[in-house]
Design brief:
alpha/beta; single chain; 403 residues; Aspartate Aminotransferase, domain 2; seven-stranded mixed sheet; Aspartate Aminotransferase, domain 1
Amino acid sequence: MTDTQQTAEYIARDERWGAHNYHPLPVVISEAEGAWVTDVDGRRYLDFLSGYSALNFGHRNRRLVDAAHQQLDRLTLTSRAFHNDQFGLFCEELAALTGTEMVLTMNTGAEAVESAIKVARKWAYEVKGVETDRAEIIVATNNFHGRTTTIVSFSDDPAAHDNYGPFTPGFVTVPYGDAEAVRAAIGPNTAAVLMEPIQGEAGVIVPPAGFWSDVRRACDENNVLLIADEIQSGLARTGTLFALDHEGVRADLYTLGKALGGGIVPISAVVGRSDVLGVLKPGQHGSTFGGYPVACAVGRAVVDLLSTGEFQQRAKELGEHLHAGLRALEGKGISAVRGRGLWAGVDIDPRAKTGREVSMLLRDRGVLCKETHERTLRMAPPLVIEREEIDQALAALAEALGE
């Protein structure tokens, strides 16, 4: 595929005026619906990334768009200086869906993680009795929780970490998937264990069976909070509401974002125990847009979509089909496939091409996905995708690998 002059002009403008903190594929999208997007030249592509799981319910889902329109016609923002008629309903309905007791609303996933860190530390000092400024949080190797200064302080990815110091102390890193290492790292100052149930940016890494049960037990035995970052893995992506549900494990706090706003508005949340989130008192934490009416209205519609279980079931059944098709390509340009539900990390054989090269070949065949690191494709199609469309993407991948 050759880029047209129109596409080249849009990209040149992005590169001239936008900071170069992303390396997008050279495609300029102007319209989208469901699992499909259209570029400025009218070419259609199957979206196999879903905005890193922000578009679980597809582009411009009609129920979500209608909820946004209806709210835009009534009220957009009050700040939390006043009550509005959407906030409490959203919190109540999200708590009921997730089986939790309290909701703290923010805007972005990174803000939710930052909020969970603050809450865990405050709880450690005021409830557990940890000495002031000595609280520790256990995290995992190859983690990704956001881009703020505190969060990148405990990243071991050089691209996210290097040259942003001085860094925030108070984090202890252990190998991901090693429950004994988690247990060994717990000490009298440990406030929480913060990890992704499935690591997304690292390449959709699934921990060994039993890992989360062991970590939950270690937390219970030592009065330590378990914080699950379900910003990418949650809200039906893996075939259950939470990825932790696959092991029947409950966290004390969950961080949510991305799909919570339906790909329309940014909204995130920390949900969990009221005795933990309850350590926050008026004036101690906040956000002007956190829990604003438009986001709450869309979030309520998202909760309604998830309450039927339809999307969880679609992710489970179609995910099995996707993974079977990907595994059939192992040894044919793919060295490994990981993941759950409609979420897959696909390692490109080192003897073949790089992840970006395969992404470009897929683009030329009408499928959009993106590499993570050098040789892994991260695939996460919208949960509204059809089986035939998955087959179309698999055929395109087989053709790209064979080129």
